[in-house]
Design a protein that fits this description.
Helix content is about 60%, strand content about 0%. The protein contains 18 helices and no strands. It is globular, with a radius of gyration of 22 Å.
Length: about 350
């Protein structure tokens, strides 16, 4: 049960050598090209666009002529405001070019940005990034409460997109402020189920779940997990992909993980992610027991109805088809993908490879 996706450069490849040949000339999303097109389409100079964003002219010029990308999520947001982009367009930009989660209506500041971006994209120039910060400071108490929500993310987003005035938004914030907690509960539940499964497997000999440390996750990946659990901070895209691979997720499951984080699924036109897609597709063909094992193990621990339904359907499909795996053993999905990336020697894999190595 693979997740639907458009065709990519590695489709039909039968070897790593063929992957490398297909990837010649294939580039990932280019921030430089995107930004140049944005300025050309709006007819803006470096200086005018920089002023609209609240960043330096030299920074914009460097991005357009030399490359490089913004170093923070807030800077991407400033670009979105400067270009009067819609909230949906800003979410795509954040995920595709920055590796950040998209705009989340459960996050207090993101909710304010969604309202202000919508008003600015409709032509009201008063709602710039500074106005969003000022409105946030007026509405959010120093210690905003956090907790589970009784409203869906979709409903919260739809409600914000219908608000026309600051007074209406302030009333919305008064009614729903406690639900704008910034946490992605589906992401945390999904990861929590996988972590429970892997800890139970690691502690099988002792009859109880092993510690998180026993999973030998890289220090940076374990740190990101801690930040997510304690503060609701969503990991960057690369860290999240690495975590999914360490937890032996299939392609469908890794796409779900990214979706729950507010990001796009693995992108077939990105050279690095195309290789990850290829590797996971190969594993699905040669080791179908991975998907079946995940499904049956998750069914034993999860309380999430959608996860139970997906796993039940997958397990039924695999049992009925009597899939057989190859004799070759693998040490784990992360190790399998790491070895393929090392063989290809992709420059784009420089940041991901250290995250795929176990701590010891």
């Amino acid at each position: 049960m693979s997740s639907p996706r458009s065709s990519g450069p590695t489709d039909g490849c039968e070897s790593v050598a063929e992957v490398l040949e297909r990837l010649q000339g294939v580039g990932g999303p280019s921030w430089q090209a995107f930004l140049c097109d944005l300025l050309d389409g709006a007819g803006l100079s470096y200086g005018r666009f920089a002023a609209a964003c609240g960043i330096s002219k030299n920074t914009v010029k460097r991005w357009c002529t030399q490359g490089g990308v913004p170093r923070s999520r807030d800077t991407f947001l400033r670009v979105g405001f400067g270009a009067a982009m819609t909230p949906a367009a800003v979410s795509t930009m954040l995920s595709r070019y920055g590796g950040y989660c998209g705009l989340n209506p459960r996050d207090s500041f993101d909710a304010v940005c969604i309202f202000c971006l919508r008003r600015r994209s409709d032509g009201d120039a008063r709602f710039d990034y500074g106005a969003a910060e000022a409105l946030y400071d007026r509405l959010v108490p120093p210690a905003a409460p956090a907790g589970p929500s009784s409203s869906s993310t979709t409903r919260l987003m739809a409600r914000i997109l219908t608000i026309d005035t600051e007074a209406e938004f302030a009333e919305f914030f008064k009614d729903f402020g406690q639900e704008l907690c910034g946490r992605k509960l589906k992401l945390e539940r999904f990861l929590g189920d996988f972590l429970t499964v892997r800890r139970l497997e690691a502690g099988r000999d002792s009859g109880r779940a092993a510690s998180l440390h026993s999973l030998r996750l890289p220090a940076e990946v374990e740190k990101q997990l801690s930040l997510l659990k304690q503060h609701g901070v969503v990991p960057r895209r690369r860290q999240l992909i690495a975590l999914g691979l360490h937890l032996d997720m299939t392609l469908e499951e890794l796409d779900l993980l990214l979706t729950y984080a507010g990001m796009e699924p693995l992108y077939a036109r990105d050279r690095l992610e195309a290789v990850v897609i290829y590797a996971l597709q190969q594993l699905a063909l040669t080791h179908p027991e991975l998907a079946l094992g995940n499904a049956t193990a998750l069914l034993a621990v999860t309380r999430d109805a959608a996860t139970r339904r997906r796993c039940t359907e997958l397990a039924r499909e695999y049992w009925q088809a009597c899939y057989r795996s190859e004799d070759e053993d693998i040490q784990g999905v992360a190790d399998y993908v790491r070895r393929i990336l090392e063989e290809l020697d992709l420059d784009e894999a420089e940041d991901l490879l250290p995250l795929l190595r176990s701590r010891w």
